Amino acid sequence: MATGKPKYKRILLKLSGEAFQNRKSGESLDTKVIRSIAVQIKSVKEMGVDIAIVVGGGNVFRGLPGEECGIDRTTGDYMGMLATVINSLALQSALEHEGVFTRVMTAIEMPAVAEPFIRRRAIRHLEKGRVVIFGAGTGNPYFTTDSAAALRASEIGADVLLKGTKVDGIYTADPFKDRNAKRFKEITYAKALGKQLKVMDAAAFSLCMDNRIPIVVFNFFKKDEIIRVIEGQPVGTLVHA
Length: 241
Known about the structure:
Number of domains: 1
Low-confidence stretches: none
Structural class: alpha/beta
Largest sheet: 9 strands, mixed
CATH architecture: 3-Layer(aba) Sandwich
Helix content: 25-40%
Order of helices and strands: EHEHHEEHEHEEEEHHEHE
Radius of gyration: 17 Å
CATH topology: Carbamate kinase
Number of helices: 8
CATH superfamily: Acetylglutamate kinase-like
Distance between the termini: 30 Å
């Protein structure tokens, strides 16, 4: 539970598509997992924080592996964008079940299921206390949802970009493969780019660096960890100037 005042007023939360999976069975969309995500987001909302979310689509489809099946990269990337919309709608449903007013906005227009992304409208939704979920990435092939998260964070004036992962920060190597990997408590954008750390792509790092938006990488699946991040406690890894 939240006990302190939030350090950030407006956040952009980036979640991978794998966050929606059942990690034991491999089920692409696990309703219990999605509901637990919604409960965590609700707890942050109750702190008075504006929340925007960018979700990935890797649990449904990824563009790059599609090339191995004969799908060209551009087509595969568009399929991946549609996968993010599936996740966005699933999360919207879970949030509304928890009583959280939510809007899905997409970079590819599909008015039957979501609003088109319009920056001023997105900011207005946030000002009215709604959670805004951005789907379909940037709407362009060859750009990841990390880049979409950095772009949307810049456009809405987010105080911080939070990347929720299954590890508790950025390491010198993959901690699941290298026992000697060490976690950075904080690191500059330049060093993260120079060391080619794979937690986010270079375009996302560069965009956040240009717009001076700090990035916090943390374990989203650790109970109340996102609350501790919002309160400014030293968890995860902080990437800053």
